[in-house]
Amino acid sequence: MRLKTLLIPAAVAMACPATVLADEGMWMPSQLPTIGKQLREAGYLGDPADLADLTKPPLSAVVKVGGATGAFVSNEGLVLTNHHVAFGVIQYNSNAQRDLIENGYVAADRTQELPANPDFRLRVTTGFDKVTDQVLADTHGKTGRAFYDAVDAAGKQLVADCEREPGMRCSLVNMFYGSDYYLVKQLELRDVRLVYAPPRAIGNYGDEVDNFVWPRHSGDFTVLRAYVGPDGKPAAYAKENKPYTPPAHLQVASEGVKQGDFVMLAGYPGVTYRHRTAAEFADQIEWRLPTTVAVLKQLQGVIEAGGERDHAASIRYAAQLQSLKNSIKRFSGELEGLQRSDAVTTRREDETAVLDWLRHQPDSQHEQAAIEQAALLIAAGKDARDRDLLLGLLGPQSQLMRAALMIERLDVERAKPDAARETGYQQRDEELLASQLRQISRRYDPTMEKALLTALLHRYQQLPAAQHVPEFDEVFGRTPAALSSALDSIYAATRMGDEAERLRLFKASQEVLRSSDDALLLAARKLQPALLRMDEQRKAREGDLLRLRPSYMKALMAYRQTQGGAVYPDANSTLRVSYGKVTPLIARDAVTYGPLTSVVGIVEKNTGKPPFDAPQPLLAAIHKGDFGRYIDPVSKTMPVNFLSNLDTTGGNSGSPVLNARGELVGLNFDSNWEAVSASWMYDPRYKRAIHVDMRYMRWLMDKVYPAPQLLKELGVP
Amino acid sequence: MRLKTLLIPAAVAMACPATVLADEGMWMPSQLPTIGKQLREAGYLGDPADLADLTKPPLSAVVKVGGATGAFVSNEGLVLTNHHVAFGVIQYNSNAQRDLIENGYVAADRTQELPANPDFRLRVTTGFDKVTDQVLADTHGKTGRAFYDAVDAAGKQLVADCEREPGMRCSLVNMFYGSDYYLVKQLELRDVRLVYAPPRAIGNYGDEVDNFVWPRHSGDFTVLRAYVGPDGKPAAYAKENKPYTPPAHLQVASEGVKQGDFVMLAGYPGVTYRHRTAAEFADQIEWRLPTTVAVLKQLQGVIEAGGERDHAASIRYAAQLQSLKNSIKRFSGELEGLQRSDAVTTRREDETAVLDWLRHQPDSQHEQAAIEQAALLIAAGKDARDRDLLLGLLGPQSQLMRAALMIERLDVERAKPDAARETGYQQRDEELLASQLRQISRRYDPTMEKALLTALLHRYQQLPAAQHVPEFDEVFGRTPAALSSALDSIYAATRMGDEAERLRLFKASQEVLRSSDDALLLAARKLQPALLRMDEQRKAREGDLLRLRPSYMKALMAYRQTQGGAVYPDANSTLRVSYGKVTPLIARDAVTYGPLTSVVGIVEKNTGKPPFDAPQPLLAAIHKGDFGRYIDPVSKTMPVNFLSNLDTTGGNSGSPVLNARGELVGLNFDSNWEAVSASWMYDPRYKRAIHVDMRYMRWLMDKVYPAPQLLKELGVP
């Protein structure tokens, strides 16, 4: 791989080098007026100032749906999102007699709209206030753990105050790595209903085979409707509830897109690492990704080998195996992409330019020192990174061990006032923790769990002495033989495999808990001090990084300003806007992927077997060729998906894609394989987002699985 | 697959339907003046009349190299052909000390040019005469076997007369399925030398992984030189030989190609089936290809299973296994392509149009009757096709059995006058037959041979009684148990595994041979009458088809003429010219392959391991970016390969690709996977040919592995 990045000479470099920042950016709405000139030059026809407040129209039409995005498309609460985002709702309403996954669903009228699973949530952002001063008020002069605690306490207080208003869910987010803090306030709608879903073979055409693939041919959309109580306030499902009137809704465009068209997108991207340091980029490429992939591949091997021997166990671990495979695929893709884009060089050159510039600024010694300290702290993180990676996987990759560690930790936290408890272990979290304990029975097998722990702890045993933790060595021994014997003893003498016993321990008082002689619980108790100590160290480090990183971010922003540019914060599940254009992808030498697919591709891919088993009504409609007003004037056929260079990441699923007039032209649902590394670096040569074409959705609702009342409500002919 | 072909509605059909005949055609040079208007309209700037005689310049520069093509590129006998065509020459000159395969070769001067393997031949066509009247002179009133024999005898006589001239190799070819016959006369050059070859990792970059693949990045070329004796006549290698002065040589173009440019190609395509009947198309798709693939896959399984048990045997059968895999891949691709193009429908519609037209022509009853008879004869071929396929594979898929059958057949043929002997069993063929007998020892294992024969004969035993042959049933029994016992007895009691014994039997008189009690020889002798009988039937059928098929071909040609078109004959290893343009490939919905690749792709594909292990000097030269005059003005980098819609098939390897002025711009070396079915049907959507760009060859000879004297001889700066 070195070859690839080193040997591309200037003479053969792409027309569009990786350092060009065109169309990159997940902008906070409040930043849009600042970059209004670029936005208008890119083709936006509206006034960027109108986009500045995400709690006001039109952006207030964009809502959070689960961990993803959706948008209101009527003033009676209709929400458009992805089929895969609403999949739980479809699944919840399906059974052997009425398989909505397989057949899709068209609610004939409002009475036919089906309630979502009770834990399904839709969140409308109603407040987004900068609270930096409040959050940092008590941090002055503090460092490390104290700094962390001051931020944590202030944040928890702000959230608790905010959530006093009924129906609200609040959270504290930090922007630019601690430079700024915002309090996000969201109206939580709990009665959401299924209105329209295409069959699986349309909504998820191509499934895993086509996942991350362009060209794509998926009708990945679903229509929901939000309801509120008769008083207009959020309420659980009740027959007498009425449709919610959203603060805004989007208009469907009358025309479709073509290559080169301006498009923009608003949504809730989850997490990116674009402003990490060059050293962190190098660490990700040289150590974290390859090491993680190697460890996860070993765990995959363990589950596969165990499944060969025991079919019942293979079923219990199917989801864990699938998740490992997904992670391996994604991390491998990220590694490949970062190498392909030569991300470290690009990042290092930019960082050097920023620091060079800073050195020439007056009175910048303090900032320079902070940046240097942050760099030292980051470098020091390497000392125990192998251990932290392996021990960090013990919980997530086990079932009973995780349960024991959680019960013991909860015991520690319950002794504190609720506000001082660890995030995730507060009273508001206990219901979720209990439900996790219940799910274990369907996912646990003692032989498999021991094998997985053995794989991780063998690796741990081979680490240099400096990385060893006395408590772990005591519990699991220092040799493979000791480990094997320890695990056998622990799992032979635990009753936690029994659900009732787990829940009993979960609910038990400290006194009852401490009197238990359960071997696994005892082991977890012995490990607890080490875990708390490691947690302490992590928080102290995080506190210092929150304190120190803003110096670099500020320098970066000031430097960019001298270049006439602006800096967007890394993604953190808050509403962001991205703009760009409908763009082909030059995937490799002499291979170009066009930016629009059509129903021709559905027929080409169709084998009649899942995942390429388009339903007969769709095939018949394609065969008939009655595409009416939805036909693409360029290809003369029916468009299905399109590709843009919009800046997206996980969480952007279901984001509305808008044209230059702010009208709805599509629905974001995936990105391409080459763009997996975009969480670290936006490479304009490869970063693409994949959208369902609004024309395809309208055609399906008009001609294939008709829902005329819905089209009427959407305000389209 | 039905779905794919049935459901593409008119509204989504490609811009370029399969029935359009644009750029299709492997034209006989004599036809070019006839289609001169189209040729000029396509962009050819020369006079089509100048291309009419393949024995005169410029086409006399195009020569046959082994089973493929090459071209003279200097007046001192330099020949440009593919690396894979000249591979035997490179291999012959390689050894552990001097590995020319790995390192390539640049002859510093003429004294360094290395002699080819003694059986390597280069053929210059010096005569191409229509001899239809002579060949058919004795056929009048005859049918079946008699018709066949009359043609066969006349042809053998013409060839024998022609070959009386020293240094000449002659052959009879038939055009338009017996409508016309030509006597081809070729000067056979026997002293050919290696002048320039790139390393394997350039000449065969991508190897099997990239075989049939576009985009491609291979420098698949080699330069040879033809020598003659001091008297100017063909001679075996001798130090005092001198370079041959060819009748013509091609000029290298000063500029390269770009998308849309006119290109043409001349070469020796092997065999096509474009003018077979619709019924034969259907048979190929519905029976022959799937059945053959199933049988060959079973044989592949036999060899793989045998190789698992016995490593030594797996080595002996590696080549046979490779060949089976290639055939399976090719046949599967052919099937896929014919289905994708819906070849039967296209062919049937055209055939119906021709026959409809014929019915309306006066005095066409005789032609119509002949066409009907041919159709009946073709349909009758289905009666024993399963048997013929299986028994036809007994020889080619065995070693010792093939040897025994050949020796017995030779015994039959030797009793006849040489001119009356079966083709392939004449005196001129005996040297080749003996060398085949010698090679058996390296490719034979008794257990494996028995297993292969068992697979074929099991299938034969399951055929309906009507397809059974008494002699085969007698020798091999009618049940699997009898077969097993028969094969065990035969192979336990044969001495033919010994090379000396095989050669003794090969040379033995009839008397000696008949007295042999070798079990395998005895079995072959028992089968012989059946094989001769089946041969008789085949020849009788072929005789009638040669007699009857011309009626359809004549109708087709007359019909095309009414449409302003012309008909080219199916390929038969004679010189043909094809013209078209540099063309991208729309492989599927939203996927376009550009028509030129560049060195960027070499770096992208390079893994450092075979087959993607570009040599350091190449990588360094790419890195340096010194592409000089060879740079592509569009991509601003170094072109490597290009794609055209030229009509090619096996045998066209090494064909020179010329521009509108008839100058050399590239070298044909492969076609794309989607075009495997082109031997039956040219589908303009998918048929592409892959060429090495002349600029890449020149750059390699100029900057990477320099050979300035060669560039000088080629007449380029």
From TrEMBL, chains A, B:
Which InterPro entries does this chain map to?
Pep_S46 (IPR019500), Peptidase_S1_PA (IPR009003), Peptidase_S1_PA_chymotrypsin (IPR043504)
Q: Which Pfam families match?
A: Peptidase_S46
Recorded superkingdom = Bacteria
Q: Where is the signal peptide?
A: 1-22
Show the PANTHER family listed in the entry.
PERIPLASMIC PEPTIDASE SUBFAMILY S1B
What GO terms in the biological process aspect are recorded for it?
A: peptide catabolic process; proteolysis
Q: Which organism is it from?
A: Dyella tabacisoli
Keywords, in A-Z order? Aminopeptidase, Hydrolase, Protease, Serine protease, Signal
The name this protein goes by in its record: Dipeptidyl-peptidase
**Which Gene Ontology terms cover its molecular function?**
dipeptidyl-peptidase activity; serine-type aminopeptidase activity
- E.C. number(s) listed in UniProt: 3.4.14.-
Family, as annotated = Belongs to the peptidase S46 family.
> What biological function has been recorded for the protein in this entry?
Catalyzes the removal of dipeptides from the N-terminus of oligopeptides.
